[in-house]
């Protein structure tokens, strides 16, 4: 998969000045993601992470440039790409009255799997990922948010190979649920033919889960390397320092922005 000079621009009316302003949400971004890699997009609020995820999901189109996913062009081959990608955002959309098993079986039908294959796959994925029989048959509305997030990730594994787009998978979760989801992501990588692009504000999460990390600021990728490589480039032993040096934002600034949202 690669991107080349992707520009996502949006325009809107400035409510106070009545002037039309244009903002490049994603600007000349270019990178490759390797199969079976966890690729992190780390950036402050409004840096363009979600826009990039929406571009990849074919929910938005770039004004110019090219993106391919498993060889398919993101503008010309939307249908093919949509079968191979799964976007998991903070508010996963589910039938909340239905169980995890029912939601997965439903997803299997959307992916044109036969009823039998869908059932088997749902059962296999849930059990392989440690979601026990009782939880698998409980209405989603009665599961914790962490557990719901796990089911959303499990649902993203119905096709193979798959590109799973995890947009802030642990934002708003308590520390235990956060750790559970992170362990789950590690398990997914050990057990499935999955490639993950993950957005996060959380340096520890990026360092723990990501094989490589792109730091994005004001729509541009300002650095891309392994966590160790980034630290070496900046001459520090903390990813937080790297982030600060490259974006001018500290961890506290990011947290404060979060609280304002
Ligand atoms: N629907 C929209 N209309 C106009 N501008 C938008 C829209 N969505 C996002 N933007 C702007 O595009 C820029 C990038 O936003 P984006 O949501 O991609 O950032 P982000 O890095 O995901 O932020 P966050 O961490 O807060 O989710 C921001 O300046 C944002 O205000």
Automatic annotation (TrEMBL):
Transmembrane segments: none annotated. Gene3D superfamilies: P-loop containing nucleotide triphosphate hydrolases (3.40.50.300). GO terms for molecular function: ATP binding; ATP hydrolysis activity. Residues 6-243 form the ABC transporter domain. Pfam families: ABC_tran. It comes from the Bacteria. InterPro entries: AAA+_ATPase (IPR003593), ABC_transporter-like_ATP-bd (IPR003439), ABC_transporter_ATP-binding (IPR050763), P-loop_NTPase (IPR027417). Keywords: ATP-binding, Nucleotide-binding, Transport. Belongs to the ABC transporter superfamily. This is ABC transporter ATP-binding protein.
């Amino acid at each position: 998969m690669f991107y080349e000079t992707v520009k996502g621009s949006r325009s809107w009316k400035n409510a106070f000045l009545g002037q039309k302003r244009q903002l490049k949400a994603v600007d000349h971004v270019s990178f490759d993601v390797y199969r079976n890699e966890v690729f992190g997009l780390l950036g402050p609020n409004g840096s363009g992470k979600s826009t990039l995820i929406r571009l990849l999901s074919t929910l938005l189109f770039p004004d110019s440039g090219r993106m391919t996913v498993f060889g398919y062009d993101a503008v010309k081959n939307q249908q093919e790409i949509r079968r191979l990608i799964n976007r998991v955002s903070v508010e996963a959309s589910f039938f909340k009255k239905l169980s995890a098993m029912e939601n997965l079986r439903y997803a299997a039908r959307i992916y044109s799997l036969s009823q039998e294959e869908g059932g088997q796959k749902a059962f296999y994925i849930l059990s392989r990922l440690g979601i026990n029989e009782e939880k698998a048959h409980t209405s989603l509305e009665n599961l914790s948010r962490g557990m719901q997030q796990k089911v959303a990730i499990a649902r993203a594994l119905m096709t193979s190979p798959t590109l799973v787009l995890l947009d802030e998978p642990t934002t708003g979760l308590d520390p235990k649920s956060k750790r559970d989801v992170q362990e789950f992501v590690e398990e997914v990588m050990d057990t499935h033919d999955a490639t993950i692009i993950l957005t996060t504000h959380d340096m520890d999460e990026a360092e723990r889960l990501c094989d490589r990390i792109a730091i994005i600021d004001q729509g541009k990728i300002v650095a891309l390397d392994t966590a160790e490589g980034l630290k070496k480039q900046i001459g520090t032993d903390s990813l937080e320092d790297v982030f600060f040096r490259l974006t001018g934002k500290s961890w506290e600034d990011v947290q404060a922005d979060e609280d304002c949202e």
